[in-house]
UniProtKB/TrEMBL annotation, chains A, B:
It comes from Lichenibacterium ramalinae. Residues 16-59 form the HTH cro/C1-type domain. This is LacI family DNA-binding transcriptional regulator. The keyword Calcium does not apply. The lineage of its organism: Bacteria, Pseudomonadati, Pseudomonadota, Alphaproteobacteria, Hyphomicrobiales. SUPFAM superfamilies: lambda repressor-like DNA-binding domains, Periplasmic binding protein-like I. The keyword DNA-binding applies. InterPro entries: Cro/C1-type_HTH, HTH_LacI, LacI/GalR-like_sensor, Lambda_DNA-bd_dom_sf, Peripla_BP_I. Keywords: DNA-binding, Transcription, Transcription regulation. Pfam families: LacI, Peripla_BP_3. Residues 15-69 form the HTH lacI-type domain. One of its GO terms (molecular function) is transcription cis-regulatory region binding.
Amino acid sequence: MGQGAGGGPQPRGGATLAQVAARVGVSLNTVSRAIRAPHTLRPELLGRIAAALDELNYVPNRIAGSLAGTRSALVGVVVSSLFHSEFAAVVEALQTGLLARDFQVMLGHSHYDPAREAGAVRALLGWRPAAMALVGIDHHRDVSRMLGEAGIPVVQMWDVGGEAIDSAVGMDHVAIGRAQAEHLLARGYRHVAVVGSLRPHDARAHKRCRGVAQALAAAGLGEPALATSAEPGDPDLGGRLVAELLARHPEVDGIACNSDAVAYGVLRALRARGRRVPDDVGVVGFGDAEASACLVPALTSVRPPRAAIGRLTAEIILARLEGAGPRQLEVAWDILVRDSTARGSTVSAPI
Amino acid sequence: MGQGAGGGPQPRGGATLAQVAARVGVSLNTVSRAIRAPHTLRPELLGRIAAALDELNYVPNRIAGSLAGTRSALVGVVVSSLFHSEFAAVVEALQTGLLARDFQVMLGHSHYDPAREAGAVRALLGWRPAAMALVGIDHHRDVSRMLGEAGIPVVQMWDVGGEAIDSAVGMDHVAIGRAQAEHLLARGYRHVAVVGSLRPHDARAHKRCRGVAQALAAAGLGEPALATSAEPGDPDLGGRLVAELLARHPEVDGIACNSDAVAYGVLRALRARGRRVPDDVGVVGFGDAEASACLVPALTSVRPPRAAIGRLTAEIILARLEGAGPRQLEVAWDILVRDSTARGSTVSAPI
DNA sequence: TTGAAAGCGTTACCAA
DNA sequence: TTGGTAACGCTTTCAA
């Protein structure tokens, strides 16, 4: 039940290498080597040291280790947001890859705001990470400068196509937008609109939007109708935007959404207005969220290879730390076609 | 484009306090005080130091600071999983509260496995955090021992009712399970079952399960039918479990799910089998995920106060660090009633 | 195979 | 109001 009211607990912070050494009767760095290079000790001594380490519950102080060593065992990661879990799977895969080599991930959030991103980068840099990973390829110039000056490997994730600071692993978001529109056109929808959250500095979302426009132009159609907002993309936003959209453009029969969460609200609002999906209107999302296959109708969506991006980022960081050169990778994605764009035919998601 | 192929980048790691001091022509710790206690310097000197700090792009080395200082500016946080985003909002709120006081959050994952949780706690403790927060109230004895010996504030989140190591902020999961069942019974469902992921060491899930049984017993009904699995809770699992459940217990007309993701699959599978929700079967979820209000029928679910739990955890940690005593808080939750349990009447979620 | 000693970049304390 | 100096707990030479 804690240490009673009043004074907070006294950090005791465990045994030190010196205490273990004293206990065994050897020098401090013999113990250090027992941990980092056991084979350089005679087995007998090693055994005694191991016993002492265990008895005293020794936990190496990574802070001291980082300060003394050539580099820290930290990797800084900046994502736009964990909350809407767009990047949770990326971070999880990245962390798994790094943890296997004993690197700890430190997370920062940009909240889709360049100034806050710069703040997060600065804060993370204070911990002298061995490398950094961040979402996006276009950054505030302070961010690029700080990262460049830090002289550590930097991997930009999720997007490609801009000027990479060092390395990059991501998708071509313009191509994704094109594919969303082309899919709708191929299914016979003609009046395509873009609906969703479009924050000023979310370059990926803007690129997807541009991709949609490109595909329409290529098909000899006009500009897409737009219903966007700088608010966070959630179902309620989707509902409000589509209501506004249909008021202005009743002819719209194909909707490319900027996220699945928005698409959920779009489907609900269309249903409430008596517009049938996919017969009257086709809807395609982005992100392939967990619920998308369970909606009615099931939502067609673009599936980003989240785990692969996280895994590759970890690989590049580790390789880079071993002296390999920077890399820029584009990863493939696909469209999961489900009922929300199944006009004419019936595409059923597996039960 | 990085530093060319071959050698990795050379960590340069920014200017040091000593370099800034040399530049200004003052001693190292005058600069240190310029940062931590500006009012103890004469304004003129302060100005010159500020200029040098800025020119050299000085970023304080938190590693060195933590080693030298009385305590580190880190808080370790262990969650079961970020992936299914159950805890993403909790972590986000916690981080926001801590960041305001310049504490950095370090994340670890237990993957619902006591051994991995112990590993995560040990790894985090290596960074000598000023405090720790973790999900759950029942832990591997190694975890309790390590945490106890660390002598730092510890907040256990999400659950209450066990023996807290220090402080706790959570919900009564037995009561939640009871409420799920009571809600179903109140709506006229009589044959209540529990469906979902039930990992051996997910104490919260087991408690909710027990709560359901308690409510049935109190109503003079028998044990709930169970369809559970140790696999992660996702829609596919829900679909498989409900198929199996209905084969064994065709009389079931009320289903309490252990998570909303599982409930999505349950709804889909019921629909595929021609069972109407809510007319034939009532379904209640847990977690109130983003899509739940957009399903057809919209899913009734228990909504945990995620942001409040994160915020309160931050508050307790900060207070504890200032010398306040440990606290154990139970937070309130509620049931969002939607269409999936609206038998007889029509409850509509707002569009 | 082991030990001694010099940092790493701060903070904290005491003296000036 | 400022400066000197000793930690902090480890890693990394270099010497024995």
